[in-house]
Amino acid sequence: MAIRLSEAEISRLLAERKPLPLDYRERIQAKPKRGHKERELDVKGAGGSEFRLILRQSEFNLLDFSVILAYRLPKSNQLFRLRRYNGKSHEHTNTLECRTFYDFHVHMATERYQDDSGLREDSYAEPTKSFADFHGAIRSMLGDCGFDVPPDTQGTLFEEDI
Asked: How far apart are CA 153 and CA 125, in angstroms?
């Protein structure tokens, strides 16, 4: 069953406050993956929504990374990717616009891309200058997507964990 979220639902989920727990650094879960490091952290939103933060970085190419904010659909284990902050390691094409670029970029879930069969909810992306490395992408995503970072950890975030 395909999941469809409206632009209003996507905006509401992005705006929902997402407080990182004080012990988030200890709680981040490592998943063994071939060729890259990956960490996950489940976060409960202030409005009760469940989110997962997924951090991936290649072991071979520092520009090959993804910082993902996913929404866990109610009564399901299915994840809906709201945002994905990617490194400058590959070319990206926005299929519906026939536009290709090679840059750091942010994928965004859109209602329009969900309506076209065969495309992922976050297939649309825009190039960005808001980050130029993995840790900058984490900071950008946390700032853009309603996260509350505990005050004593703002400088380090996940940097020592990856």
From this structure: 30
CA angle 155, 72, 42 (to 5 degrees): 35
What is 44-57 written as a DSSP string? E-TTS-EEEEEEEE
Q: Per residue in 27-79, pLDDT tens?
A: 887 777 888 889 999 999 999 999 999 999 998 999 999 999 999 998 888 99
Question: Residue 135 belongs to what domain range?
Answer: 7-148
Cβ-based neighbours of 91, under 8 Å, separated by 6 or more: 100, 101, 102
User: Which residues, listed in sequence order, are joined to residue 145 by a DSSP beta bridge?
Assistant: none
The answer to whether 37 and 57 are in contact (CB under 8 A) is: yes
Burial degree of 54 (CB within 10 A; 0-12, 13-18, 19+): middle
Query: Could you tell me if residue 159 is inside a domain?
Result: no
